[in-house]
Amino acid sequence: MKPILLQGHERSITQIKYNREGDLLFSVAKDQFVNVWYSVNGERLGTYNGHSGAVWCVDVDWDTKNVLTGSADNSCRVWDCETGKQLIMLETNSAVRTCGFDFSGNIIMFSTDKQMGYQCYLNFFDLRDPQQIEDNQPYLSVPCSESKITSAVWGPLGEFVVAGHENGEINQFSAKSGEILKKVREHTKQINDIQTSIDLTMFITASKDSSAKLFDSASLDHIKTFKTERPVNSAAISPNMDHVVMGGGQEAMEVTTTSTRIGKFEARFFHAAYEEEFGRVKGHFGPINCVAFHPDGKSYSSGGEDGYVRIHYFDPQYFDFELEA
Questions:
Q1: Which of 16, 33, 274, 317 is the most exposed place for a label (fewest CB within 10 A)?
Q2: What is the pLDDT of residues 286-320, one digit of tens each?
Q3: Radius of gyration over every alpha carbon of the chain, rounded to an integer in angstroms
Q4: For residue 289, which of 120, 125, 144, 151 has the smallest C-alpha distance?
Q5: Which pLDDT tens digit goes with each residue over 111-129?
Q6: How many CA atoms lie within 13 A of 299 on its CB side?
Q7: DSSP 170-202
């Protein structure tokens, strides 16, 4: 399993995202660049230039027409995927931490940080209404006074957003009214990442409390728990196997004080049903900040604190592998 190494960022990777077909991989980092790569051979297709601060999040709509990015330069931008042109720029009062297209690609949500005296807000814009864009007025803005949102994804059918908070809470926000539909608290510390399964029926959370948990999207029922001994920065669900991959490692600032072996910078594979670890993949020289499965399940990628994105294609043995119960 030889990885393809993508060198396109000077600072640590914050998020990576495949498009729906899986032929393109988008990566954003703490430098101001948004890169797009061919996932098959790791060739860089181009960059989306315009941000002037760390880019925290990226998303692409279902037909790969538009790309959405949120940045610490207090803006959320929509780009033309093919040409790299900036189509829309939405100014905010604080850094944009998470962003996402709903399945139709018409409505975007993004959350802003609680900083500089401004509250954390979850904003919803309808891209079909030019007036909203022009006035920079979302059709719905939900304040989160208790604890800021650290990760958020759209639920099935675009009816609600599942948001993970700094205090370990998970909330379902209605995209119509903005009210909290359901609330659970299974994690004890901050939720670093939320990713959905391919059919959006489940999602997995990665938390600073050294565990990842699988939930039902609609009911927020807690299904499974995957425990490690280091904070989990990211977790993803395989689209065709009962597997999850998790990336983590200790905090970036503690890296220099421990040996690399203790750092646990491997990507770790767990069986989704048995909650057992069955494999690890080494490679990054620092904590893994983001992991993502290819939509066909034949490869996965990880982005690390070292600024590299690695694409790993699975060996044939991986697909024949059965965990002995």
A1: 317
A2: 889 999 999 999 999 999 888 999 999 999 988 88
A3: 18
A4: 151
A5: 988 877 788 888 999 988 8
A6: 20
A7: EEEEETTT--EEEEEE--SS-EEEEEE-TTSSE
